Amino acid sequence: MNVVGRCRCLSRWRWIYNAAAWLLSPAFVTYGLRRVRNGTRATALYDWTGRYPMAWRSAPGSPRFWVHAVSVGEVVAASSVVSALRRRFPDAWVLVTTVTETGMQTARQRILDANAFAFLPFDLMPFPQWAMERVRPDALILTETELWGNLMHAAKEIGAKVILVNGRISDATFARAQTPLGKGVYGWLLSHLDLCLMRSELDAERLRQLSVPPDRLQVVGDVKLDQPQVRLSERQREEWRLELGLIALGNAVPLLFVAGSTHEGEEVIVLRAYQRLLSYLPQLRLLLAPRHLERLERVMAVVGEMGLVPVRRSLCAGKPLRAKEVIVLDTVGELAKLYGLAAVAFVGGSLIPRGGHNLMEPVLHGIPVLFGPHVDNFRPHAELLQREGIGFLVRDENELIQTAWKLLSSEPLRRAIAWQAEQLLLLHRGAAERVAEAIGRLLPKSGTSQRMHALDFPSLLR
């Protein structure tokens, strides 16, 4: 098919995409009104319609990056990328957009190098065009699977590069993209991408099979796993253990089970599991870290109702911790380090439908991590950790007990998992820097975009 024919094919699928989008426009309106009614700031309506502050257009900074991360999981990836871009381009101007409220909150807390934050405009023309005219980025950077057709098209119209970062193609997406309708729609979507920086060779191969040119593909590793080493030294571990009262009684060295970021309903499950495990492992101790400190008194009351004794972390003073005593974390910012003392960790918000929390914090210390089925915000990591034998899905109290017992009763198994975790992190170390380097090579030397079109993209309808 010649260039003109390919252009017409892609234009036809753009028309179909936009027709479907406008048919769904009542759902967009309903979604926005529900969000505002549930507490999202009313000014989000300006974001959703692409009416970003005009001052952003003239904000200093060269080059200019628009980084999009849909929710919490993608924000983790975006945070590493933004930091790496800032190191490479100290004078850059960076906008970070998200879709969800939790994603926005996480982005503001975690991405300290960004200049501005906003919600993504609805992918209905002319909203993406209005937003793009106000931001005028040199590069639109999309994380994982965030392929918004009109947003990418608007970026190409102003001459911006469009880059997929930490790209992943799930089984479901790959299957849809190979149907007759999927070939057309995904062919149009993928035609906008100037560069695809993929997290794995499998994901890159799937894009090759979808006819993305090899020169637009690069495997850089998973930026979510490109985190600094946080493992405690032996001296630090010993100091922490002494402070918390994890002191050997006779020949029994205490094993610590850390249950972090727990929510209402999960503490009871964890405490019952702990009591059952104590009958087999009398040297076991529990540290319970509720997600929200305003629930602290309630959590301590639950511990007491279970016949155990709650001990505030801030009041630990080196006194040996007894089996009936449970440390309740009442401080801010210590959980990530305390995972390093654990033999086994459980990450909450996952046995109940809350979307889960950061599964990687224990893994960075080489600690096996347990989690429930509700890990929607961290699904890719949950699947990866399960494949690597580092993370373990537990659906209920019995599975929590069985899996924890298997890990707690075998030090060789825990050592093997620690080694596996280290190898996994080594594989992906430097991924964010590789992303920044690849983006730097793609941008014009002047730091400003040149108008480009994707007419040379091979049609998937051929």
What does this structure look like?
The chain is an alpha/beta fold and 462 residues long. The chain folds into two domains: 3-226 and 430-442, 3-Deoxy-D-manno-octulosonic-acid transferase, N-terminal domain (Rossmann fold); 234-427, Rossmann fold. The protein is built from 19 helices and 14 strands. The protein has helices at residues 3-23, 25-37, 44-48, 72-88, 101-110, 127-135, 149-157, 171-177, 180-190, 201-209, 234-244, 266-278, 296-305, 335-338, 360-363, 379-388, 397-408, 411-428, 431-442, and strands at residues 64-68, 93-98, 116-119, 139-143, 161-167, 195-198, 217-219, 255-262, 284-290, 309-312, 325-328, 344-347, 369-371, 391-393. The chain has a seven-stranded parallel beta sheet with strand order 3-2-1-4-5-6-7, sandwiched between helices. β1 (64-68), α4 (72-88) and β2 (93-98) form a beta-alpha-beta unit. α1 packs across α9 (180-190). The longest helix is centred in the first third of the chain and has 21 residues, at 3-23. The protein is elongated. The model is unreliable at 1-5 and 446-462 (pLDDT under 50).
Brief account:
This protein has 19 helices and 14 strands.
SSE topology sketch:
Blueprint: H1 3-23, H2 25-37, H3 44-48, E1 64-68, H4 72-88, E2 93-98, H5 101-110, E3 116-119, H6 127-135, E4 139-143, H7 149-157, E5 161-167, H8 171-177, H9 180-190, E6 195-198, H10 201-209, E7 217-219, H11 234-244, E8 255-262, H12 266-278, E9 284-290, H13 296-305, E10 309-312, E11 325-328, H14 335-338, E12 344-347, H15 360-363, E13 369-371, H16 379-388, E14 391-393, H17 397-408, H18 411-428, H19 431-442
Parallel strand pairs: 1-2, 1-4, 2-3, 4-5, 5-6, 6-7, 8-9, 8-12, 9-11, 10-11, 12-13, 13-14
Helix pairs in contact: 1-9, 4-5, 4-19, 12-17
